[in-house]
Amino acid sequence: MKEPTFHTRYRGYNVLDKWSSTDWDDQTRAVVRRRLEEIPCIRFFTSEETELLEAVAERIVPQPDRGQAEKIPIVPWIDEKLYEDKRDGYRYEEMPPQQEAWRFGLRGINETAHALFEKEFVDLDPLSQDVVLTHVERGDPPGAAWKLLPASRFFKDVLCITIVKIYYAHPLAWNEIGYNGPSSPRGHVRKWQGGVDPWEAH
Amino acid sequence: MRDLSQEEADFCIVGAGAGGGVLGAKLAEAGFSVVLIDAGPHWNPVKDFVSDELGSRKLFWTDERITGGDNPVELGSNNSGQGVGGSTVHYSMVAMRAHPKDFLRRTIEGEIQEADITDWPLKFEDLEPYYEEVEEALQIAGPTFYPWGRRRKRYPQREHELNAPAEVLVRGCSKLGIPVAAAPIATLSAPHKDRPPCVYRGFCNYGCTTNAKSSILVTYIPRAIASGAEVRANSMVAQVEHNERGLVTGVLYFRKGSRELHRQRAKNVVIAGYAVETPRLLLNSASSLFPDGLANSSGLVGKYFMVHTGEQAFAKFPQRVNQYKAPPPGGAITEHFNDTMPDTDFICGYSIEVVGPHPVDFAARLTTARKMWGADVRRTMLDYNYYSGLGIVGEVLPQMTNMVKLHKTERDQYGLPVAHVIFSHHENDKKMVAHAKGKMREILEAAGGEDVWTADRTAHLLGTCRMGSDPTTSVVNADCRSHDIPNLFICDGSVFPTSTGVNPSLTIEAIAARAADRVSDAGFFARPL
To answer: Nearest CB to A177: which of B52, B202, B382?
Structure first.
């Protein structure tokens, strides 16, 4: 499979160049510094689950353009959320509590991989991995774990949304889409269509 | 700040948001001793609020709630706050009056199958002076002439300069001949007292760090404290207590992180926790005298739960929009479709407003609404700055089967049963949503947008303790006083009998401002009964 490419419109834009500017206040720097420098260690998932979720996350938001060390970390933040059991404020009534949901879901993805390809998910090529995930997305994948967990709900409202949110909370993602990032207290002047303040991405 | 923890307060108000904050400030100013208790912190916006989407989750009610029904409502983020100021800390500040017809929907529409539309026990004229009072207090910035609703005097502050998504709405509407106006917004466009005007950071939904935003936290709460009220943060009320005569005597609450119960005595108790926590607390306060929960002789506490349909539509434009900067201030609005229309097969209507989600929120919508994942997400997000969005506030009809009840097994960190929220759309809601999606698409395309897509969404939490004149069909009267217990009040979005097609904060605040005057006038009720 040909690796997809992602060409940013904003070459050379680095939101972190504004770190010391009036766009960033102390409390925001503290939050983003932690996101960049204090990646939590894995405390909730087993090593097998971690490896599996890494592979899944790479299909949900692929980062083929980055080496392993440069990738935006996804799994450690999911692990922290589950280890500390930080909730979202709601849970669909057909879903188990989040810790169980993630455990069942990962087990289910692997079971589906075995049912379809007789292999571990992590040993599949990306195309086959996408086939597995598409079965999960459509809601009736093979695998015993899916008796405990509605597959399509898990896929869309738990798995994908969580991964995507973590990805787009990272300054590297902000760079590629030209997001201004923090803006306190400076704010903006040119609010109109086509208007770009000097400190916004060019 | 005063400490009322060992005293019997005249009023103990549970929840310091749009309802409780306004009521508490006015009662304190009227000379009553008031303690406002809130489950969340008392933030200092300048130091505590963060210019970051995920870094701001602390502003939301993230304790577990179970959501179900045919159209389960997403809770926790945009519709639920936790902390002094409530969800006004992260609301979109669109400051709308309901219209005279909104208070008379039953009279106008007649009986509608599978919905219990009622007239309000208030008329628009009862609330009109209070709308004006609250608009003045919040210094609403709005257009010189607002084309919908009853004629009004000028807004206290001039309108904000239109932002890019508003330009899109105005351009699209103008092409189609749809009237459109600058939105009235509870954010300063000029300095007011010690607060500066908005600098358009665009992080309104994550807390305003400059205090330009007229949240309850920076408007009514300081007034309450200045008049001797106590604001007790980080305190989760577990139960409302009553005596053998069936009058309430105060509340029991937990300090955050502790399982030890504290008692606050009070001559009157006001519940103002919004349409999920308010019925939850009333139901959790069941006793041998009130086995179905407090104020629930009608059986309607928790019933008629409503939201607003909040569908959004996005389109890609050739010019940069940079949707992260600005909305809501500088937003535009059309209420052209906000009433029953002769050529449609549904009743009531909706407002169309502008939205500007930041990347985390926008990408989340791509996954849930467009079912996007994989390379498609990253490719689409490369054009994030070129998308512009609209969103509606649409009236949903009240149905008894939509409700907040106590979950049978699930408990929160204090051991209290959590809320189980059930919501399914009425046929009328679905027809309205389809209409609104079509109109938003037309507007975006007329404005030059391409690749239009829509996202299902809801906003606001309403109903569950509806107001009315008949104790058998409502929970509180027009003054927010419960029919069953004369010294128990409910003052928040839960008292709405119908949902209206506009953002509810100003109406909640006007109801609270009026209730304060009514209670003050009847001052003897606040004294020992």
So the answer is: B382
